[in-house]
Amino acid sequence: MGITTCSKDSYSTPMAENLGAHASIIVLNIVTGSLVRAADSALRVEVERLQNFKEVDENNHAFRLSHNQDFRSHELQIGRRIKQISGNRDSVRAKASELIRLINDPLCPQSISAVTFAKKVVSQCSTQSANFNSTAFSCGHVIVLVTSQVPLAMDLLLAELHKACIYIVPKHVSYSESAISKEYYFKAMGFREEDGKAESRKGYLEGVASYMKLYEALVQTEVSGVQNLHGLKEGWAWISRLLNSLPANIYKAVALNSFLEMAGFALFKTYKTQFRKILNIISRDFLGALESKQNPKLNPIIMKLKTYIDTNQFLKEPERWLLKTSLLSEMAMPEANYSPQQNYHSQQNRQYRNY
Known about the structure:
Elements: E1 4-8, H1 15-18, E2 24-29, E3 35-39, H2 40-66, H3 72-83, H4 89-103, H5 110-127, H6 133-149, H7 151-164, E4 171-174, H8 182-189, E5 193-194, E6 197-198, H9 201-219, H10 232-245, H11 250-271, H12 273-292, H13 299-310, H14 321-327, H15 340-349
Antiparallel strand pairs: 1-2, 2-3, 3-4, 5-6
Helix pairs in contact: 2-7, 3-4, 3-5, 4-6, 5-7, 6-7, 6-9, 9-11, 10-11, 11-12, 11-13, 12-13
């Protein structure tokens, strides 16, 4: 393992005064020379989630080796249900119920089913990037309904999102030709490999936008009688960490734009004046920093963010958001005394029972 050292980030702006206490740090890996910018709190959460995911995955692998059973058919059923999620209320309700039944099926350890659920949901971002807007809110609903019954699945899903897109943490890896190779940099940033080389920056940014859309659809989803284990307050923390900790660049801009398009409406409904203050900070400080670079490649994303703020697009419901409100009265809800935390422990105890 590489040795790391941490120091307080000298990069500071008025954002820190408005967005709360999210200490920004730079993590230096002495072996690779890579610099990671992120909020200290975000890195701690990421490490914990990834470690938990690793432990569950390793236990699942050990279980498969010690038992002469093949769960691929069961996993394929979970993947098939996720691919069938669409923007109509009947599909959302039906697929959530079917997935809960499959994940809790005693014929397959719950942890194996939960890992499959997490991986298949996140993979939708890359396989449906062209039309993901039409299904992101539906996926968010399915995630909230499923994880309200299977809390383990939420931790695994968030870990899988961290692995797929570092801006969901959020964090950024700085490149220095004298410190790290381009190959390592692309790997650390999460660029996919295509024909033996890193994907194009355009393809990477499209992926960032898709992963962000899923994440923000999740955090702003509310279903009456069902607890969202990673709700809107997490979205508020995310934008605070992003603005305080990451440098101004196109990656941050694309992540921020997707965030606002998907969750700005819900954030304004909840935080009102405070959300307007964040938009003022974005307009004054972040866009100002981008414009100062005088890079023509930044102009399209700068214009998108400016248009969003100047035309008050956060006052308009995003496309497909209305589907969410039409679902509330028709969803099958858990009993009033249901406790997600209590359910989590009981499920953990039975993951490998009777095998």
